[in-house]
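Working notes for the structural subgroup meeting. M.R. asked for a predicted model of this chain before we commit to crystallization trials. I am recording the input and output together here so anyone reviewing the notebook later can reproduce the run.

Input as submitted:
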Amino acid sequence: MVVAVLDQLTKAIAKDYLPENPADAVPLIGNFITLHLTHNSGAALSLLNSKTLVVTAISVILVFAVLFAALLTPHRSWAGVLAMIAGGGMGNLMDRGRGEPWGTGAVIDFIDYFGFFVGNVADIFVVLGVVAVFVLIIRKKPLDVLWLSKAQIATLESQGKAENTGRGKVIWVFEDASVSDNSASAGDSTDLASARDNSEGGQ
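Returned structure, recorded in token form:
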């Protein structure tokens, strides 16, 4: 959410102070990275400009999928990286949501890289997040998202290894757990919040 707010704040400033003509662009790092206002109705690198609603629909699915994984993983490193990507996606989705009808709005871009493409702060966080994902994969850091069927959850509840607090679903993390529909075995279990706080304490 912080990423989305930061993105929207910088876009508001860009709308008020930056020129739209690339010839009048404000140098940020010489002529290599400059600032000027533009609007992108498509995807990255201005692809699919005529398919704005399609791009929006795909973006919504991806953002919620990434956010869902961020909430499920017990590891703070994965949670932070995925939340950063989701926040960037949300920032651009907020732009698209201002269109009429909803989802047809254009994303505000203002950071011109070498005249090759123009992006924004949300894009920066998405790219950094994707790079961090590859780093975590290379370092063999597991995501450890546990998927359970209703029958498996019922089994764990009967064994006191899962709990329903009335908020719909409660995710418990089981280390080295092997769970079937009729049986479950696991060591000590902790709730997601505790696992996230403590899972990387010794790393």
